[in-house]
Amino acid sequence: MTRRTASLAFLALAVFAGPLRAQSSPRAIVETLLTAMSAKVAARIRKLFADTATQQYGVGALKSGEAFRAWIESDVIAAEARVDGASIVAAGDAVIVKGTIRNNRGYANAADFLFRVERGKIASWQIRY
């Protein structure tokens, strides 16, 4: 392969493959979730969670698997849940979000959420009240 051919191949790869994306930080992933919730983009919300993601109210029982997916569908996506006035603090894989959670069913309450992000996906969402 000549130098010119190699250069053209590299250029074609760069143009058609698009830029390589660095893995997003845990904070950026949670911010993407909050944006997707506000914009009501269900497919994006679903994609942000790990296949093994869990949800928990306080120190109650963990929801995982089908129970987790049913909760996301009913309490987040169908209810069009969003967090207003979010303040976000991140440390390592942990992201804390505080604000006001609202939905299309008239629910509004103080939000205090602890997210854990692993390998670029949200692995857990603990709702702390």
Q: Can you walk me through this structure?
A:
- With 129 residues, the chain is α+β, with helices and mostly antiparallel strands.
- It has 4 helices and 6 strands.
- The chain starts with a helix and ends with a strand.
- The model is unreliable at 4-22 (pLDDT under 50).
Head-to-tail CA distance between termini: 63 Å
Reported for the largest beta sheet, the result is:
6 strands, mixed
Compute the number of strand runs: 6
Quote the average pLDDT. Answer: 87
Radius of gyration in whole Å, from Cα? 19 Å
Shape: globular
Runs in which pLDDT lies below 50 for 5 or more consecutive residues are: 4-22
Overall SS class: alpha+beta
Task: Looking at this protein, list some descriptive labels.
129 residues; alpha+beta; six-stranded mixed sheet; 6 strands
Q: What is the secondary structure topology, with strand pairs?
A:
Layout: H1 3-17, H2 26-39, H3 42-47, E1 49-57, E2 63-64, H4 65-78, E3 82-91, E4 94-102, E5 108-118, E6 121-127
Parallel strand pairs: 1-6
Antiparallel strand pairs: 1-2, 3-4, 4-5, 5-6
TL;DR of this structure?
This protein is α+β, with helices and mostly antiparallel strands.
